[in-house]
Amino acid sequence: MSGSNAMDWGGPIIVFDAMCVLCSANAQFVLRHDRTARFRLASMQGEVGTALYRRCGIDPENPETMIIVDGQSVLRDSDAVLAIYAGLGWPWKALSIVRLVPRFIRDPLYRLIARNRYRIFGRRESCWLPSPEQARRIL
């Protein structure tokens, strides 16, 4: 991570799979709807994303979760997804109601989808690339 740490990057970092159609669509959704530019994004295929996964004890070659890293704090699985929508503000924040579903129910469902993401949603031929306007938010 070239001598920097996650706190230097100005906000929570979403690490996602840029080869996954669903994950890339979610990244694009965040970039479109994050009006305050709160989140930064890093693909697990890139240097920053790989380093963050390793720091969290996740194999970047076979992750079954996306993560949000904010300084020393790390969210994963369904908590990460819910934090994204909460961080986007209204109306997306309303999805936070899903937190009422216990994690022992949410997380296995999340992991089932994550493990089968390519089969269900497809795999891109190459990593998704942001538009020039979005590129400043990608690490």
TrEMBL record:
<keyword id="KW-0472">Membrane</keyword>
<keyword id="KW-0812">Transmembrane</keyword>
<dbReference type="InterPro" id="IPR052927">
    <property type="entry name" value="DCC_oxidoreductase"/>
</dbReference>
<dbReference type="Pfam" id="PF04134">
    <property type="entry name" value="DCC1-like"/>
</dbReference>
<dbReference type="InterPro" id="IPR007263">
    <property type="entry name" value="DCC1-like"/>
</dbReference>
<dbReference type="GO" id="GO:0015035">
    <property type="term" value="F:protein-disulfide reductase activity"/>
</dbReference>
<protein>
    <submittedName>
        <fullName>Thiol-disulfide oxidoreductase DCC</fullName>
    </submittedName>
</protein>
<keyword id="KW-1133">Transmembrane helix</keyword>
<feature type="transmembrane region" description="Helical">
    <location>
        <begin position="12"/>
        <end position="31"/>
    </location>
</feature>
